[in-house]
HAD-IB family hydrolase (SAR86 cluster bacterium), 226 residues
Amino acid sequence: MDSKHSGKLALFDLDNTLLAGDSDHAWGEFLINRNLVNEDKHRQENDYFYEQYKQGKLDIHGYVKFTLTPILQMNATERDRLHQEFMKDAIAPLVLDSAQSLVARHKSAGDFCIIISATNEFITTPIAKEFQVDHLISTELEINNGSYTGNISGTPCYQAGKVEKLQRWLDSRNDDMRISEAVFYSDSINDLPLLEQVATPVVVDPDDQLRDKAQNLNWEIISLRT
């Protein structure tokens, strides 16, 4: 999966780009539907964090703690079983056929495909497998004695942190892939730091701030939902 590669780097944001929705927010609604949390309190906090994200002001440490708290006492088997239900009931309806086709076209062209997401690795790892990408870069989680602590490990994969984590991963390899030669697909103004670094920024069903920015810079704007 992470072998030496000399093709073009194709980068994909996940939420509201490859998915017709936000997997982090969907996780909160899934927990509510499974009666694992208090409905009113959890939905209020979940919506609050989601609005923070859309405004580019997310407290990602607080959000990760909030996201993981309901499963911190679960063992790996229990977490995996719950995630399988989440994939079937909440994520499968959000997977866009056109998004899967886009990733497949890049893979067929010999490109190295990476999902790079602010959403934590517990939520994103099975989704990345569904898209059959070559690699996943997401917000990593601290683990103690086989259990999540609710804390982030290292740099959050958010805003400028995406650039930092991607560059660190590239530096660890022995090939010719460079951010400056990559294509990056994203919907969010939060991804502006990385969009400004790549050769080919492609804006996908963007939020209003990113649409304005893309129009001013003559970046390509596409939809995977039509």
